[in-house]
Design brief:
By secondary structure, the protein is mainly β. Helix content is 1%, strand content 46%.
Length: 296
């Protein structure tokens, strides 16, 4: 088409009826392509961590000529790498966007950001939206703060979370201190997911026999998780079944000229009670037999 004001070619008709006005809608192809084109959602706790902590975009030069480009964010808590480059026709480049330590200062709530990808030659841009949702840390819950366990026996308690985690959360259950005879026999590792965080999960304890003492010893069992989740403790007391204190003589009566009845203050061991060497009577009397009678 001739430019405005330039002479028409010699063979061009000068009759107005021989000419037509043409309107053309000419669209230039966008040489900048960025994927994905959907908004990005990130979750995290106050102070971190974040899920996902990083994610990738792909920028492509759809033009037939080389393209210089740049990538940036309007949020100081996002890092973009690389921040620019040059692509030949048809080439692509990966851009990594990461949540940096600046996000650790953000308050609980939703924080919006924009990512701008630009063809620095013609100024065309592609903008991608991102939202970082900061949540409060969940708390660990135990359905008992203290419990007792018989020596040689078992006891149990349950653990859950107070709110949904941003991702699967592992809880380790350990003996923190106290009696080494008390141990965690099952439920040492509990995993809570985003869809079962409120479900109680069981921990089984075992108290080994300890013939060396007759004390009711105790131990602290601790449930531990991520650094931002405070641990919860359960105090466990072992009820000892050993008795090293001799029973007291509660009663004595003469049954006949050759036998007496002895009553003790508590139950006695049969083997010990019928062992004649455990008895002595003064005035030179010899014990020849001992028979365990009925409590009644």
């Amino acid at each position: 088409l001739p430019k405005v004001g330039s002479p028409l070619p010699p063979e061009t008709s000068t009759n107005a009826s021989d000419h037509f006005l043409i309107f053309a809608d000419i669209q230039m192809a966008d040489d900048l392509s960025v994927e994905p084109d959907l908004p990005q959602n990130v979750q995290g706790y106050a102070g971190g961590p974040y899920d996902p902590a990083s994610f990738a975009y792909s920028i492509t030069n759809a033009d037939a000529l080389p393209m210089s480009w740049s990538a940036s964010s309007d949020a100081a808590w996002l890092s973009v790498s690389p921040a620019g480059g040059t692509l030949n026709a048809g080439e692509s480049a990966a851009i990594l966007v990461s949540v940096n330590s600046g996000a650790d200062l953000l308050s609980v709530g939703a924080h919006a950001a924009s990512l701008t990808f630009q063809d620095t030659g013609d100024g065309r841009t592609a903008i991608r939206a991102l939202t970082l949702n900061i949540k409060s840390w969940p708390s660990l819950l135990a359905d008992a703060s203290s419990l007792s366990i018989p020596e040689g026996g078992t006891a149990s308690f349950n653990v859950s979370l107070s709110s949904a985690p941003i991702s699967s959360t592992t809880v380790n259950v350990v003996r923190l201190s106290g009696d080494a005879d008390i141990s965690v026999s099952s439920g040492q590792t509990l995993v809570f997911y985003t869809n079962d965080w409120s479900t109680w999960k069981g921990v089984m304890l075992f108290a080994a026999e300890d013939d060396g003492d007759d004390q009711d010893d105790s131990a602290v069992i601790e449930c531990q998780s991520l650094s931002g989740i405070s641990p919860v403790d359960v105090t466990v007391t072992e009820i000892d079944n050993d008795d090293f204190v001799a029973p007291e003589l509660a009663g004595f009566s003469v049954v006949s000229s050759t036998s007496v009845s002895v009553v003790y203050s508590e139950d006695v061991n049969a083997a010990s009670a019928t062992n004649i060497s455990n008895y002595s009577i003064n005035e030179g009397v010899t014990v020849s037999d001992a028979v365990l009678g009925s409590d009644t």
